[in-house]
Amino acid sequence: MYTLGEYARIIHPHLCFSRSSFQEVTYYDLPENSRGSLTSHLSSNAALVKGLVIERASSTSELVALVGTGLGIAFFYCPKIAAVVLAVSPIVALKGK
Asked: Is the pTM of this model over 0.90?
């Protein structure tokens, strides 16, 4: 089982290579489409996608952990106020966007 970042790192180059393999032969004669430039472009794209996916997944998991911990502590110390905060939080979240 792959994580989301590993999946993007493995699948993205494969998809790009499969798309470039259907090009005409004259496509590779152009200097900007040489083997080295295509390989470096492919590796930089894979690194960029991996970085974006990992950054997004880590920030999302951090947010979920913080909210869950905060609600757990709130319900432990004062369940009534925590219930009010939980009921009002969707309104606050919608107004924030």
From this structure: no
